[in-house]
Fold this protein.
Amino acid sequence: VPKSLRQDHERPPIMNVLQFSDRILCLPVIHGSGDFAIEVRRVMLSHKFDCLAVPLPPSFQNDVERAIAFLPNVSLVMQEERPTIAATEWRGEDHDHDEADRTFSYVPIDPCQGVITALRIALQERISRAFVDLETAQFESYAAGLPDPYALKHVSPEKFATALLPSIGRLPEGQPRERAVFMAARLKELEQRYERILFVCSIVDWPWIREAYVDQAEPLGEHEPVEETSIYQADPETLLFVLGELPFITGLYERARADLEADENLSIDGIKAMLLAARDHYKAELGNRSR
């Protein structure tokens, strides 16, 4: 557990661990969860914020915000990573870089992504947006085992987040740690300009960003030169791999949004709807074959 979250005799008990300061509220999310996307919407529409901070680097801002306008069509904002070539890999100046060796960082413009939901609402409500992550030429990903987000229906976001603290390991040294410290420093800069900031980030990162913020840690890294981003439409055949929720469930969320219908329980009711739709499709196919 980060030392900034421990209660001791020198520090009064923390009433809301998600409140970095009187100007910054953090909302940790599990990426790709419809339940967390709904919670992001609830928080943003029930409180007033004058700035939204998201854990994406500035180079992604223009294309991510453009791509959000294309929803419900799913797209990806991609950025080619600069290759690092070791001396033993050098094969001459005339050697063409193999297409198979190209790698990309990407942001899925998925309506069930909490960060995308937050940006979507901020654009509609004309709230300032800040992309506060570190620019990295090669992004280092990491993951953690997390519980079913449906528990969020019965507990507050702060209780959900703090319940996970014992199972959230420290960030790996190097780029992950540098990114956390950099984002904490950017949040400190933002609170000099804005009165009420919402920071939406990964639930795996939030305790360490908060620790860096409280400790006033100096940034360990700086922006690296990166390539320009591009928007690509997702192939419908690959949506199962691109989206956080099942494509059918994501479609139900978007339909409910367009029709102003209740969507709080779609993570469960949507499974039933999907099974019923599959049954009807199967019956229709049998009927066509019998003719």
The beta strands are 24-29, 51-54, 75-80, 104-109, 128-131, 197-202, 229-233. Residues 7-15 have pLDDT under 50 and may be disordered. The first strand starts at residue 24 and ends at 29. The radius of gyration is 21 Å.
